[in-house]
Design goal:
Rossmann fold, five-stranded parallel beta sheet, 194 residues
């Protein structure tokens, strides 16, 4: 059986390493072992805008080298549903022949880490008394909230994000974050849609 090549487009520097880890974990959880996750394309959030063609160029490139494409970005202050719908329409114009998953973390990727923060207590530099905020998907400044739950250290997106993503409990994150649950469902869907 040929390996499933997963093309990835992300927004943040830390996402370049963390998103492939999450995709791999989701694949393994669903016993999908024949996947190869290609090095992600990083597109700055402002460059997803229709005025620029960075998103389209990344899609074109990945469509030649991938079997499926996953796009993950922060919703920030945009409505995640509207943002993803717009990007999905643009993606369909470029990539008609491949399954494409587009998910926006509500509001930031770090909200997903906060959603699972209790599963990280005492590990990866997380304090033993860290508690998931009740409004995890409404928080702007989630990076600062994650940092506040670290043991006397500064949160570094490029250093800590991948470690936290590799160790967080995906089930707990799904329970506490609708956008993370959507991410898991979408990834499972595209990985199974050959």
């Amino acid at each position: 059986m040929t390996q499933l090549k997963v093309g990835v487009i992300v927004e943040g520097h830390g996402d370049v390493d963390a998103i492939p880890v999450l995709i791999r974990r989701i694949a393994e959880l669903h016993e999908i072992f024949d996947t190869v996750i290609l090095r992600p394309f990083r597109v700055n959030r402002s460059r997803f805008n229709e005025k620029f063609d960075d998103f389209e160029r990344a899609l074109r490139y990945l469509s030649q080298n991938s079997h499926v494409i996953a796009v993950v970005l922060d919703a920030d202050d945009d409505c995640p549903r509207d943002l993803c719908s717009n990007l999905r329409l643009r993606a369909r114009e470029i990539v008609k022949h491949l399954p494409v998953s587009i998910v926006a973390a509500n509001k930031e990727f770090e909200a997903w880490l906060l959603a699972a923060i209790e599963s990280l207590r005492g590990r990866c530099g997380v304090r033993t008394d860290a508690v998931c905020p009740s409004n995890v998907e409404e928080i702007r400044g989630a990076k600062q909230r994650v940092e506040a739950m670290m043991d006397n250290r500064i949160y570094s997106e490029t250093v800590d994000q991948v470690k936290l993503a590799a160790n967080m409990d995906l089930r707990i994150a799904r329970q506490n974050s609708r956008s993370f649950d959507k991410f898991v469902r979408d990834i499972k869907g595209v990985l199974g849609a050959r």
